[in-house]
Write a structure and sequence with these properties.
Distance between the termini: 27 Å
Largest sheet: 6 strands, parallel
Structural class: alpha/beta
Order of helices and strands: HEHEHEHEHEHEHEEEEEEHH
Helix content: 10-25%
Number of strands: 12
Radius of gyration: 17 Å
Strand content: 15-25%
């Protein structure tokens, strides 16, 4: 990836810290890629193993870059451009950070349950850091929230406190089975959690509501989160990632 291709607009990098790419992560990365494209930004998946199979739909998006090099290699002498989103950071992300940084870095996979502090491996590298509040988010949610704050419309700053969230929504898979998602999600205009490729009932605050989320109306060849949950209902969320 050439340096010029990264500096044209805001770039969102997920440093892929696993030797494999699970179906759950693939759905989240696809959501990030499509939303980044819609926002005129670049999505970069870095530190990808050379023998790792990347879904064709993800590779085919023009705004997405798949890199075998680490973010340290890509920005060897330009660390000052990078903001690492770190749950342990002292300061919260703000619109002003959009003028200071043009690269926003995430340690994959953020959505572990329980959290395994994957970001600690990047924390040691000396990047500037910001946080997105106290609660655990999925990787696509963390990028979505960052883009909402950083890629704001002129004259309409969005603060973290302005963003509405849904915490630990319960997905109703069928009349006998449901599962609580142990993460914080950004809410859409109807107050529903934004999730990759989901169409199922969601229980919010004791009431049953139908939610359909396909990250901007894009279709996906992936089977979707609900199918993954049904298939792996007896596994922990870490096994899905």
């Amino acid at each position: 990836m050439s340096r010029s291709s990264i500096s044209r607009s805001k770039t969102y990098i997920v440093e892929h810290l696993d030797p494999e790419l699970g179906p759950w992560s693939a759905l989240e990365y696809l959501a990030i890629a499509k939303e980044s494209k819609d926002n005129g930004a670049t999505f970069c998946l870095s530190s990808v193993a050379k023998d790792l199979t990347i879904p064709q739909e993800l590779q085919s998006l023009g705004s997405t870059v798949i890199e075998t090099r680490s973010v340290e290699e890509l920005y060897k002498n330009e660390k000052s451009r990078i903001c690492l989103l770190d749950p342990a950071a002292r300061d919260e992300l703000s619109p002003d950070d959009g003028t200071q940084f043009d690269v926003f870095l995430f340690g994959g996979i953020l959505g572990d349950d329980p959290p395994r502090d994957r970001t600690s491996e990047l924390r040691k590298k000396g990047f500037h850091t910001r946080r997105l509040g106290p609660m655990q988010m999925t990787t696509d949610t963390a990028v979505r929230v960052t883009q909402a704050i950083i890629q704001q419309k002129a004259g309409c700053p969005v603060l973290l406190a302005d963003i509405k969230f849904v915490d630990h929504p319960e997905l109703r898979i069928d009349e006998h089975e449901s599962t609580e998602m142990p993460f914080r999600y950004m809410a859409d205009e109807k107050g529903m959690p934004i999730m990759p490729d989901v169409s199922c009932p969601v229980v919010l605050h004791g009431g049953l509501t139908k939610v359909t989320s396909d990250f901007g109306g894009h279709d996906s060849s992936a089977q979707g989160m609900i199918e993954l949950i049904q298939k792996d209902s007896e596994k922990g969320f870490g096994d899905l990632l």
